[in-house]
Structure formats: C-alpha cells, structure tokens
Amino acid sequence: MTFVTRGQKIYFAAVGLLALWVGIWGYFIPTHVDEAIPWMVPPLHARFLGAMYFSGATFMVGCMLARRWAEVRVILPMIAIWTGMLFIVSLFYLNEFDYSRPQVWVWFSAYFFYPIIALWLMWQERATDMSPTGAVLPKWANTYLLGQGSLVTILALGLLFLPNFMVTVWPWKITPLLAQLYSAPFLSYGIGSLMLARRQRWLEIRVAVTAMLVFAVFVLLASIIHLELFSIADTADWLWLGSFTLAVLMLGFLTNRAFASHQL
Fold it and tell me: How many CA within 13 A on the CB side of residue 35?
C-alpha cells in the first residue's frame, strides 16, 4: 500500500497555511478580513468564509498526519475543485480586484497553482493500490454521505449557475460574486461526499468527515453569534440553522466512529 510522501505533505502544508491564515482573519478578526482576502465583507460573511478555511486547514492537517494514500485520495479532487473553481469564478469578476494589493496576487497565484498540483498528484497516484484494511463502513454511513453529497452539490450548482436567484433566497444578504465564490467549497464538499459514499472503510473517510464537521460547527457558531440577522419567520433561515445542526450531529457521530474504529 502506498504511503503519503514527504513532498505530498509539503504541498498539504502550503495549502493548509494559507487556509489557516484566512480562517484566523475571517473568523476571529472579521472587521479586518481584507488583510487576508482581496475584498472587505461584513462580519457574518467573514466568519462564514473563516469557517470554510478552517475546514480547509483541517483537511490539510489530516492529510499531513495521514500515513496511507487511501486516507487522502478523496481530498485531492476536493482541493482541485475548491481552488480551481475559485480561480475560474474570479476570472469573471476581474474588475472587482484592486491589483495594487498583494492579497490579490496571492489569491490568483494560489488558486492557479494549487489545483494544478492536486491534479498532478492524482495522476501520479492513479495506479496506486487502493485496498485499505480496517473496520468496514456500515451502509447507513454511505447512505448519509450520499444524501449529504446530493443536497450540497445541488446547492453548489444553484450558487454557481443561478447566482441572482440564490441571492434572493439566501438567509442573509449576499452578492452574485459571493454566491459564485461560495459555490466552490460547497461543490467540493458535495462531490467529496458523493465520493466518500462509495468508500468501504472508516479509514478512508475520517479526514474528510472531521474537516466537514469543523465547517459545520464553525458555521453554526457564527450563525448564533449573528443570530439577530436571522428571522424566525423566514423558512430559509430555519432550513439553514436546522441543516447545520443536523450536519453537526451526524458528522460528529461519523467522526467519532471513524476514529474509534481506526486500526493500525
């Protein structure tokens, strides 16, 4: 069985450091989030982005700690989707960037090279033996991941292709630019979940479900911090809060089972 190499871990560390940088500014210093990203956004938006990037950092820490390629094989396409989509979406909003700011050049450089390297690593490992040992994943876990992946992928495609409509139904005020930027990590989570639903061992899903749990927990906390922006009379708001509460419970249970079932 192929092991994760030092070079691959260096790549994961580079991606993780940028994700951690954005996550810290977005979540804990939201009024200065433009120190880490090309735009200034309101605090709830900043914390939502921070939650995404803390999740991304968790993905990378998990990959750095992993020993076997089977533990990270789903993460590579998720990185490629997330970072590649951010680069492509950004190309449609070039007039929104201030090219005198170094954050803009970091943004475009990172999201150009990260997906290319991810695809290259996937190609290198295309013939790797993917037959991990360990506790078997129960059918209910596959079913949950399939359902989560289907719903989140639909949400991501709506944000990407129908941004003007999604602006009208989103729980708080967003712009078409933000809607399409949000589509990138959601599409990564969605397709990643669909891929995880086809896995057979707990070992193969534990990094991803842990990182998704971090996202769900931080988003739910951010929503509670900014609860005054939500309305009890708005169905979209109830769906938002209810969906993330369910995600925290289910992903928390999956994460616990994944680590409890780990076999060396």
Answer: 13
31-39, long-range: CB within 8 Å, 24+ apart, which pairs?
34/103, 35/103, 36/103, 37/103, 37/107, 38/96, 38/97, 38/98, 38/101, 38/103, 38/104, 38/107, 39/96
Q: What is the pLDDT of residues 164-191, one digit of tens each?
A: 999 999 999 999 999 999 999 999 999 9
Sequence-separated (6 or more) residues with CB below 8 Å from residue 177: 93, 96, 163
Is the CB of residue 207 less than 8 Å from the CB of residue 62?
A: yes
Whether residue 202 is contained in a domain is answered as: yes
Rg (CA), the chain: 18
Output the CA angle 141-214-66, nearest 5 degrees. Answer: 75
Residues of the domain holding 138: 6-260
Question: How many domains does one find in the chain?
Answer: 1
Q: CB–CB of 58/65 below 8 Å?
A: no
Question: Is residue 58 one of the residues assigned to a domain?
Answer: yes
Q: CB burial class (10 A; 0-12, 13-18, 19+) of residue 264? A: exposed
pTM over 0.85: yes
The answer as to whether 1 is a domain residue is: no
